[in-house]
Amino acid sequence: MNADPLDAARRLFAGPIAFERGVASLDDLPADDLPEVALAGRSNVGKSSLLNALAGRRGLARVSDTPGRTQELNLFLVGRPASFRLVDMPGYGFAQAPRELVRRWTRLVRDYLVGRPTLRRVFLLIDARHGLKDLDREVMDRLEQAAVSFQLVLTKADKVARVEPVRQAVAAEARTRTAAHPQVLATSSLKGWGLPELRAAVRSAALGLDFPAPLPHDPDFPPQRS
Ligand SMILES: Nc1nc2c(ncn2[C@@H]2O[C@H](COP(=O)(O)OP(=O)(O)OP(=O)(O)O)[C@@H](O)[C@H]2O)c(=O)[nH]1
Ligand SMILES: [Mg+2]
Q1: Domain 5-207 superfamily per CATH
Q2: pLDDT value at 210 more than 90
Q3: Segment 51-93, tens digit of pLDDT
Q4: How far is CA 103 from CA 35, 92, 93, 106, in A?
Q5: How far apart (Å, rounded) are the C-alpha atoms in residues 114 and 118?
Q6: Bigger pLDDT: 104 vs 22
Q7: Pairing of strands 36-41, 84-88
């Protein structure tokens, strides 16, 4: 047994990770036979770059300077045999695309996020330069209403002089949300910052290894002092 979660996650992500398929409609999703973890966030926030950085492989997921690169739910199988799926999602908030296309992506993202029974956690990426925006808050509202657990992750930390104040502000907001994981990670795909911790968070979310968070209505929480 391996006691070090960072090391276990490093080994997992150094192993086989394979593109399974891209789907433009929920009907095309594979059977919900494996746990899933999704990377979501505004267009151009760095979802596909982060997936590549986690896997230590360029070109696994397609990256672009132009927002709107990822247009389908792209599913990746982690491990062989696969132990879970990583899902690279189209971004939201991209106004330049044709209206009908935006509507289709938005529907796809929304339906997947709130309707996939095997979705264990959504990693909601936030650009460290901008912090939380109202669109992100709307997505957080939706996830919360659907009781889908999510964790906020800062991207492009290399682009700001000091990431810690941003991380603190985002973490403070996460604490006001029952569905949000309290840990907010700061990452840079470019510099490799925060990747070991994020790999461990993804692994433990996918495999259900986290200490179960107490539900707000749990009569035994907080523990009663006798
Ligand atoms: N400096 C810096 N640039 C980054 C980082 N991560 C991503 N980028 C850049 O940000 C741009 C968008 O990256 P993507 O990974 O394609 O973003 P995305 O969220 O997948 O975008 P969509 O699929 O269009 O929603 C690219 O030009 C990347 O090179 C980072 O950690 N640091
Ligand atoms: Mg992308």
Answers
A1: P-loop containing nucleotide triphosphate hydrolases (3.40.50.300)
A2: no
A3: 999 999 999 998 988 877 788 999 999 999 999 999 999 998 8
A4: 27, 10, 11, 5
A5: 11
A6: 22
A7: parallel
Ligand 1 touching residue 47 (CB < 6 A): yes
The answer to whether 70 touches 101, Cβ cutoff 8 Å, is: no
What residues does each domain of the chain span?
Answer: 5-207
Best mutation site among 39, 42, 44, 136 for ligand 1, i.e. most ligand atoms within 8 A of its Cβ?
44
Query: What are the angstrom distances between the C-alpha of 202 and each of 186, 197, 208?
Result: 14, 9, 10
**Inter-axis angle of helices 134-145 and 99-115, nearest 10:** 40
The DSSP call for residue 46 is: S
- Distance, CA 209 to ligand 1 centroid (Å)? 29
Residue in this structure with the two tokens 């529907």, named with its chain if needed: 107
